## 1
Amino acid sequence: MSFDKIMAIGGSGLNAQLVRMNATASNLANVGVVSGSEEGAFRAQRPVFSALLDGDTAGGFKNLAGGVRVDKIVDDTKPIEQLYEPGNSMANADGYVFSSNVSEIEELVDMLDASRAYQNNVEVITSAKDLMIKTLGMIKV
């Protein structure tokens, strides 16, 4: 496998985890947000990934077999919580507000997992670079 391909695969992993961390950060920022309607309530965002096969392209790189691509970002399907708060200015005519479907604990765990996966991709790229430098050093001798 070529050095460029290793870097591109590692880079695609970095990009995927960065998208995941950004979605998680957005979800965490909207934990306590309420709305006057179920349709207006914030829904957690989830990135959808797919494996790249031979001949696929992502981020301007071709033939990234083994890499990952961000296909889309979808709304989480967990139900929206309905809270009775008649004094809330956002409450509907029946006195209910609708809270986001974001679980703070789940998001924090997802953020930890994404940051560790990001670090693993950094280590892959660093190891490949170090091996390339050692190989070039052996050629010079």
## 2
Amino acid sequence: MIKPILIVGSDTGVGKTVLTAALAAYWLTYRDRTTPSKSLGIYKPLQSGEGDREFYDQTFSLSQTLDEITPLYFETPIAPAIAAHKEGKPIDLGLIWQQFLKLQQQKVCLLVESMGGLGSPITDEYIVADLARDWALDVILVVPVRLGAISQAIANVALANIQKVKLRGIVLSCSQVYSLEEIEELAPPQMISRLASVPILGILPYVKDLSDISQLARAASELDIERILI
């Protein structure tokens, strides 16, 4: 049984979904070739607007319905807490917790994708960091290879420490092809790890075709996978 992990981003559009998909593809390709659709679970508790849960449903042969992937869905593509207020729908924390427990019991590998970063609001009084702490989830922080990566990483690690969130490590994510020299200039791994006092679990290379499971699996194999899927 793999300990469930929560994949969060240091900002919007930094590669949470790509990392989640890459880890799922790795599991399907290398870890469980017998009943992968039954052993793998992907969970995004809340979603606003079409996107991630539909992508997971179309890309992977999951034994989950859309509502089992994401039990709380809002049509307005803005922060769930704001979308819920706008649409007049409640955010049922009990519902998303019960669905998490159900998947945790059913699946060998459960990947939980956050709705935003650790500081993203779930309700007016509850943020993603609260959920990570209350659900006792280890967190993987996705930081983009771009200017500002260092300060984003340090700020998110500081929040994790304040909220007593267990941060397993950082994955640097490439939104395009970068040379090692460019990565060192934009998001130097050793500097980020030293300043944040958190290990770097690898650099996720750019994946051109997110529907290609083999490409996704190869990308995940570039990471310190034994420290991620444990």
## 3
Amino acid sequence: MIVVSDTSPITNLAAIDHLHLLQQLYGSILIPVAVYDELVYPGKSVPGQQEVQKLIWIQKQPVQDIQAVLDIQSSRANIDRGEAEAIALALEVGASLVLMDERRGRSAGAAFGLQMTGLLGVLLQAKQANLVDTVKPLLDNLVAKANFRVSRALYDFALKSANE
């Protein structure tokens, strides 16, 4: 299974010390150069910054078709470079899944026929795989520590989906 990730799933899971869930669920993940750059930008400290430079299962891969990135950005309002590169890379490598939290980015990826999931989907998969016992404390921790924004309706839906 080839999985491509945008920045936010990495930073949010790192913020709550659960980045390992990505390796346990998917083995390895690919990140485009723009995502890597967002994570390791000099003078800026973000959760996951050290890990993305050291962990061999997080693999940086450049997008070959830069025009595709520009086309994705111009066709969709408010898609940042990292999201556009993640979508372009996923299309290039035939990814089975793209991890992305931003609604506009997920919508853009889905429009290209990509299977998209966000952090809540990752947490639900982790529970289904018995990698975590409960989703609620992780979700609460994300809101408290990582400033993760989730509507009350989506929060409740995630807990209901997790049978919590």
